[in-house]
Amino acid sequence: MKARVLSGVQPSGQLHLGNYLGALKNWAEIQSNYESIFCIVDLHAITVYQDPKELAEKIRETAALFIAAGIDPQESSIVVQSSVSGHAELAWMLTCVTPLGWLNRMTQYKAKAEKQETVGAGLLQYPVLMAADILVYQAKIVPVGEDQSQHLELARDIAQRFNSMYGDTFVMPETRLPAVGARIMGLDDPTTKMSKSVSGTNHAIALLDEPSIVRKKIARATTDSQPAVDPENMGPGVANLFTIAHACDPFITKNSVAGMRYGDFKKLVAEAVVSRLEPIQRKYREITADRGYIDSVLLEGQRRVLPIAENTIRNAKRAMGLYVANR
Ligand code: AMP
Ligand code: TRP
User: Average pLDDT in the 280-296 region?
Assistant: First the structure.
């Protein structure tokens, strides 16, 4: 039997090159070796306010981008988190075995909470729900970008604690980072990670940005005061552009860019990105032209994974002594 893979992306903001290189590209590459489930985590998105109309659209847009980026809906299940109630149900059970101190330590929580006037309790619970996403399917492998490593360690800690309190119930999940692109930085500021929630026109490259926009953003990306690329001594901005280019086109190597003037280097990077995104954008347009297609994919995804989640919920309930009907 193939090992199970699970991962997710929030349907908030615009999916960007960091999401692609850190997550989606890796998913597409490994999907055929595993039984894969890829989630659009709408329940995570609402931990900060989302405009309801926009969120409903973003869920479908994100699903279409999964497919456009190479996720094959025949091979992998594409699932909206809220369409399988086991995620939220298990999250509550796990909440009850999670010490508050573990959640207060999460760096992403601390960073997000700082930006909010009032901090919703969901923001603190966010990583417990993430643990539930993984454990409800007994996933073995979780391919994510580096920013999720701490959340995954927590998921393991929660699984272990549940298992030791109530008996072996959950498989221990492993983190799988991509070899290149696990942490793509902002173009405007190469010391902060590229993120959906940072505003500013020159921060992120959206997967649906037109070629002219991609070229403009890369031309304006922050570098340093050197005139040309020194592969042994790249500043953070140049190193980030190099990572992006190499992840998009493995033929671009440190040797091949050595000594290039920054202007020419940026053009090379921009063309590598444009060529990577072009087929994704074409596929996206094809998919979204058919209004019913995405809904049918999401319904099929839900249908396939529902029995797995229901089985885990039943086991977790029994382990805890909650009510399970005798049938
Ligand atoms: P999010 O945008 O927070 O829903 O993230 C979805 C996936 O993309 C997760 O696996 C993240 O680790 C990954 N990801 C997000 N931002 C980046 C980034 N700047 N570099 C690499 N991976 C990222
Ligand atoms: N929290 C993740 C992020 O923002 C998304 C996510 C939710 C996830 N549930 C998951 C990733 C389960 C991997 C596994 O990047």
Answer: 96
**What ranges in the chain are assigned the alpha helix state H?**
17-19, 25-30, 42-45, 52-68, 86-95, 100-104, 107-115, 121-135, 149-166, 211-219, 236-248, 254-257, 262-289, 291-320
pLDDT value for 320 = 98
Q: Which of 112, 216, 267, 317 is catalytic?
A: 112
Mean pLDDT value across residues 191-196: 94
Q: Are residues 161 and 39 in the same domain?
A: yes
89, 174: one domain: yes
Q: Is residue 227 part of a domain?
A: yes
Question: Residue 220 belongs to a domain with what CATH number?
Answer: 1.10.240.10
Q: Using a 6 Å cutoff on CB, does residue 6 contact ligand 1?
A: no
Out of 26, 27, 77, 133, mutate this one to test ligand 2's pocket (max ligand atoms within 8 Å of CB): namely 133
Residues 35, 106 within the same domain:
yes
String of b and e for 283-316 (b: at least 16 CB within 10 Å)? bbeebbeeeebbeebbeebbeebeebbeebbebb
Q: Based on the residue annotation, tell me whether 193 is a catalytic residue of this protein.
A: yes
Give residue 24's pLDDT band: very low, low, confident or very high (50, 70, 90).
Answer: very high
Residue 178, ligand 1, Cβ within 6 A:
no
Whether residue 318 is predicted with pLDDT greater than 90 in this model: the reply is: yes
| Ligand found nearest the CA of 198 | 1
Q: Is 112 in the active site?
A: yes
Tell whether 200 is covered by a domain. no
Domain count within the chain: 2
- Confirm whether 272 is domain-assigned: yes
CA–centroid distance, 325 to ligand 1, in Å, is 40
| Residue 205 domain flag | no
The CATH number of whichever domain residue 74 belongs to comes to 3.40.50.620
The atom number, within ligand 2, closest to the CA of 6 reads 14
**Average pLDDT, whole number, for the chain?**
97
Domain that holds residue 243: 211-286
pLDDT of residue 199: 76
C-alpha 262 – ligand 2 centre gap (Å): 35
Global pTM?
0.97
Would the CB of 184 count as within 6 Å of ligand 1? Answer: yes
Q: Whose CA is closest to atom 6 on ligand 1?
A: 9
Q: How far apart are the first and last CA of the chain?
A: 29
